[in-house]
Amino acid sequence: MASGSGNGSARRKGAEPEDQDAVNLAADWSDISAGLRKDLGHQLFSQWIKPIQLGGIDAETGVLDLYMPTEFSANWVKDRFADRLTLAWKIARSEIRSVNIQVHPGRRKLADLPLGDGRRPANDGMDIGSMLAGAGTTIGDAGFTSSVGLDPSLTLAAFITGETNILGFNAAQRMAATETPQFSPLYLKAATGQGKTHLLHAIGHQYLATHPRARIFYCSAERFMVEFVQALKSNQTIEFKARLRSFDLLLVDDIQFIIGKASAQEELLYTIDALLAEGKRIVFAADRAPQALDGVEPRLLSRLSMGLVADIAPADIELRKKILESKLTRFAPLAVPEDVIDFLARTITRNVRELVGGLNKLIAYAQLTGQVVSLQLAEEQLTDILSANRRRITIDEIQRTVCQFYRIDRSEMSSKRRARAVVRPRQVAMYLSKCLTPRSYPEIGRKFGGRDHSTVIHAVRLIEDLRQRDADMDGDVRSLLRQLES
Q1: Most buried of 142, 217, 297, 329 (most Cβ within 10 A)?
Q2: Which residues of 39-56 are buried (b: 16+ CB within 10 A; e: fewer)?
Q3: What CATH number corresponds to the domain at position 349?
Q4: Which residues of the chain have pLDDT under 50?
Q5: In a domain, 62, yes or no
């Protein structure tokens, strides 16, 4: 099939069939793009979706090629929009089963560009030579501002906080503040999709706001190693070191991937020492604590852990709800019922990225098909995400956990005793059973000594009310939720 760009002849009478196919493909992309522009907003659409170029459709596999100008942009769009783009194309054209987002095959590879030539490839922010150059500025210019490689949507203002991530958020604020932070380096530790990369980008944005002429370098540890090896091969290690150490703020993501590379580890160690000696700021992010990194030299481990190690724990159900609710304003006037938000927050628990992705996929499907967002639609369209996340919590597990928490005997869950010391834990267990399991009120009642469904309804409403008025009760429920969901 011809490229989606067409050649103009398809619009003339007697055009070749494959040219007409290209025109039809482009027309479908125009419709899909219009919906994405409205959904994402002008800035995100212009930066990430507009540069997409159409390729061809593989007739056997049903895969549509979508091309991006750089490896970084291809990976970024693949991580965040692949599901949405696939769904949109499936709806537009029945023969398309999936999309393949990749760098345009005619694009010159970054590795082919000399590190020290001072030129910046168009639309790219990943190689060190380009990052040093900043936005349209030559490497030799003094006092340039560089936010290249930072996602404009990942700011401190856009980061939703809760009990599990407040330490990392506050540490990020301190690191980006005008005054010198009390700790450096900052090491953000979190599992995949819990917000550590968001905070890295946010620190960069905030630091630029308070230090407008700052030099900032953001990269992954893997990219750091690639660029270092390229510098070695081109005999430009001196330039590499000098430029790297000229930055005011160094942001390195996924530091766990630097393991096992002795030369790169040594260079990073010397860079950390040089930057700290000059009072500059360094932030690392990883999916494990420094002490849990395998294959890292002891000297580097000591540098990584000498500042503050801020642990970002998995989002609890309250934070997951807050995050979902914060996204709803983007979809107005499309309505998302409260029971759908509760369902997603309770069911998609592995990480925040998957949670938001599930909401986006649901909204995209509803917008593109004209359906109303409902609990049934969520269950039908998010089958893969939900099945991957669903850890079945049983009523027996809830009863056992509540009894251990309140230090009462398990038999009290089914007993007829009315003492407050056992009634309240029993009501909490009923409340959690309704929140965390798909069981009906009568089914829950039967698991609590054959109680009537009205007793369970009363318990659920009572605990909901107490959580609003009683901080101790709210704290107890939060603690139990964290235990049961961990």
Answers
A1: 217
A2: bbeeebbebbbebbebbb
A3: 1.10.8.60
A4: 1-17, 107-147
A5: yes
At which residue do the structure tokens 């530790």 appear? 189
pLDDT at 121: 33
Residue 427 has a pLDDT of 95
Return the amino acid letter for 198.
Answer: H
Distance of alpha carbon 58 from its chain centroid, rounded? 31
Give the separation between CA 353 and CA 8, rounded to whole angstroms. 41
How far is it, in rounded angstroms, from Cα 257 to Cα 293?
9
pLDDT of residue 186: 96
Do 267 and 333 belong together in one domain?
no
Structure tokens at 249: 């703020």
Number of domains the chain is built from = 4
Strands 53-57 and 63-68: antiparallel
Q: What is the pTM of this model?
A: 0.56
Residue 388: the pLDDT is: 65
Distance from C-alpha of 302 to C-alpha of 137, rounded to nearest angstrom: 36
d(CA 356, CA 378): 13
What is the three-class DSSP state of 118? coil
Q: Which residues contact 308 (CB under 8 A, 6 or more apart)?
A: 171, 183, 186, 187
**pLDDT value of position 113:** 31
| In contact, 130 and 121? CB cutoff 8 Å | yes
CB-count exposure of residue 25 (10 Å: 0-12, 13-18, 19+):
buried
Amino acid (one-letter) located at 42: H
pLDDT for res 109: 41
- List b or e across 273-289, with b for residues whose CB sees 16 or more CB atoms inside 10 angstroms: eebbeeebbbbbbbbee
Give yes or no for a contact between 262 and 296, defined as CB atoms under 8 angstroms apart.
no
